[in-house]
Design a protein that fits this description.
Layout (H helix, E strand, L loop, with lengths): L1 H7 L25 H13 L2 H20 L14 H63 L3 H27 L3 H5 L5
Length: about 190
Amino acid sequence: MARNNRADLRLDAPKGLRTGNLVGLGRNGHSRDSFGRFTEAIARGMGTPWFLLGLTLFAVAWISWNTLAPEAWRFDSVALGFIALTLVLSMQASYAAPMILLAQNRQDDRDRVQFEQDRQRAERTLADTEYLAREVVALRIAIKDMASKDFIRGELRALLEHLDERSDERSQSDDVPDSSTMESRPRA
């Protein structure tokens, strides 16, 4: 029998397609968390305006019936101050308070888990941000050592001016004969 239950829990299927969970099952196969979910649903329902409106209508109907109905049909005495209504509302309140507290405890547990996940995410984000900041600083340092367009243009202009001056000097020296070359030439 135990092997059949284990065979139902397939680990090779995605979580939504599994026939059951490995964690959270009681001995009878029911979820141990079902009562918690049930109490949360009740607490969520009690916190709505519709619940308050329904409870108010219920109390008004109860009081109206036990006041206006024929004496034989009444089930709660007006003379005794609606003892049955008081008992019903007290019982509802005595069950509602622990269920609301249980739902709040479960919400606190979820908030604690969410806070831990947020803290871990913030740590990862901080580490990523610090890494990116270091990379940006390294890029700025690398770019600082690189020549800019203006620097390269200035250097090229200076080089062109220098080459123009040299070419002017050569053209002037080609126009004026050298005295050493003039003496070695035969005269006509």
